[in-house]
Design a protein that fits this description.
Elements (H helix, E strand, L loop, with lengths): L4 H19 L4 H115 L19 H20 L6 E2 L20 E2 L21 H12 L1 H21 L20 H11 L1
Antiparallel strand pairs: 1-2
Helix pairs in contact: 1-2, 3-4, 4-5, 5-6
Length: about 300
């Protein structure tokens, strides 16, 4: 309404003046004034229209400028968005590269972690084996070691043991040397044993050997004291006593002394040949009879 009121007012004034001029017929001055009013209304209307036209042109210009500015701003914003998009794409590429490198590092870390777990498992197994070994050693150290009973505590009855056979073998090995030292310069032959006699106590071949009796030592008297050493007659007698018994050994020694006295009187240096009774296969007493024959032969 505010925009339409001025032109409507000018139009109404012009129409009123024209109508009054038609209605007033006798007075020329009134007519002239009415014509002048109508002309003034027309001039005012034209001026108003011009003003309105200029204002509209200004508005159009301003609108055009605003539109141009808006377009420029839109283009600038679009360019800025494009630049942001390019920057975002570049950053995305860098991040993808870094992510790829991180994936590689993660794969290497997983491999190292698996290797460390394997080494840890190996170390734990070795540690468990070492602890088990130490535990076994501790158990073995805590277990008391079984000791052999002393020699005096062995029972004297029953079948002969392996140790008695070993001591008898040692006595038999030293018997020839002991007899040679007791022969007062006489020459003796060792009694056949092993394959020569057809019998072996310990299943090992023994060959008969002949050895001469060395001359007696200057510091030793007949029937005197004994030397100390592993080949002493006392030690051999003790070993034989452990094997055959003290009574049988005493009888064998008495018979050996009687035979030695007879040999000294006869002056014979030869050793009598073994008889059939000396054969261990025919001897009813077994190994004990063989030991007594060896003592007599010495």
């Amino acid at each position: 309404m505010r925009g339409l009121l001025p032109p409507v007012s000018f139009a109404a004034v012009a129409l009123g003046c024209a109508a009054g001029a038609w209605l007033v017929s006798g007075d020329g001055a009134a007519v002239r004034w009415l014509a002048a009013g109508a002309a003034g209304a027309a001039v005012g209307a034209s001026a108003l229209m011009r003003l309105r036209d200029r204002m509209a042109a200004l508005q159009v210009t301003e609108a055009t400028g605003a539109r141009a500015r808006a377009e420029r701003e839109h283009e600038e914003k679009l360019a800025e968005l494009k630049r942001d998009l390019e920057e975002a794409r570049r950053v995305r590429g860098e991040l993808e590269k870094r992510l790829g490198s991180r994936h590689g590092d993660l794969a290497r870390l997983r491999t190292d972690h698996a290797a460390l777990l394997a080494r840890y498992a190996n170390a734990e197994s070795e540690r468990a084996a070492a602890l088990e070994g130490r535990r076994q050693l501790a158990i073995e150290a805590a277990t008391p070691v079984k000791q052999l009973p002393p020699a005096g505590s062995r029972p004297q009855i029953g079948p002969p043991s392996l140790s008695q056979y070993l001591r008898a073998s040692h006595a038999l090995d030293n018997l020839a040397g002991n007899a040679a030292r007791q022969g007062h310069g006489q020459t003796h032959e060792q009694a056949p044993s092993g394959d020569a006699a057809g019998f072996s106590y310990f299943s090992r071949p023994q060959r008969a050997q002949s050895r001469e009796t060395p001359p007696p030592a200057s510091g030793r008297r007949a029937g005197g004291g004994h030397r100390s050493g592993p080949d002493e007659p006392g030690d051999a007698g003790t070993d034989l006593a452990d094997v055959v018994g003290p009574e049988v050994l005493a009888e064998a020694q008495a018979e050996a002394e009687a035979e030695a006295d007879k040999g000294a009187e006869a002056g014979s240096d030869a050793v009598p040949a073994p008889s059939e009774a000396d054969d261990p296969d025919d001897d009813p007493h077994g190994p004990v009879g063989r030991v007594i024959d060896l003592e007599q032969a010495s």
